[in-house]
Amino acid sequence: MEDTFKMEAEYTDTFGGEANYSWVRRVAFEVPHGASNRAIMRKAKKLIGLNGLRGRTEDFGDSLTFKPYGMATVMFVNSVY
User: Fold this and answer.
1) Is 47 in contact with 27 (CB distance < 8 Å)?
2) What element of type H or E holds 15?
3) Cα–Cα distance measured from residue 12 to residue 20, given in angstroms and rounded to the nearest whole number
4) Nearest residue to 35 (alpha-carbon basis) of 26, 25, 48, 44
5) 62-68 own/partner pairs: CB under 8 Å, 24+ apart
6) What does the domain layout of the chain look like in residue ranges?
7) Comparing 1 with 64, which gets the higher pLDDT?
8) What is the pLDDT of residue 23?
9) Distance between CA atoms of 15 and 18, rounded to whole angstroms?
10) pLDDT range class, residue 1, cuts 50, 70, 90
11) What is the mean pLDDT of residues 6-32?
12) Which pLDDT score is estimated for 64?
């Protein structure tokens, strides 16, 4: 059996560049140990419904942030312990 770890993604609107949470979409998923940030983001974007959108991704060590271009939204991807 392949070792995996759990991740959570939250997608919400922004106001003034900060997360607003007037609405939010959440998903939980698993990825194999050693998965690249790119693979994690690709899976999170697909599950949230953002695949095909371009944007800026920021890496904060144990979490990732994706801000789609031209949209006032943000997606946070965090590992679950």
Assistant:
1) yes
2) strand 4-15
3) 7
4) 44
5) 64/37, 64/40, 66/41
6) 4-79
7) 64
8) 98
9) 5
10) very low
11) 97
12) 97
How far is residue 74 from each of residues 4, 6, 13, 33, 59, measured CA to CA in Å? 25, 20, 6, 25, 14
Per-residue model confidence (pLDDT) at position 62: 85
Return d(Cα 10, Cα 23) in angstroms, integer.
Answer: 10
- Helices marked H in 1-81 — which ranges? 37-48
Predicted structure pTM score: 0.91
Q: Which two tokens stand for residue 31?
A: 């990825």
Beta strands in 16-80 (DSSP E): 18-32, 55-59, 63-68, 73-79
AA letter at 56? R
User: 64: phi > 0 → left, psi -120 to 50 → alpha, else beta; which?
Assistant: beta
One-letter amino acid identity for 52?
G
> Residue 17: CB partners within 8 Å, gap ≥ 6?
none
Using CA atoms, how far residue 67 sits from 46, 72, 73, 74, in Å, is 15, 8, 6, 5
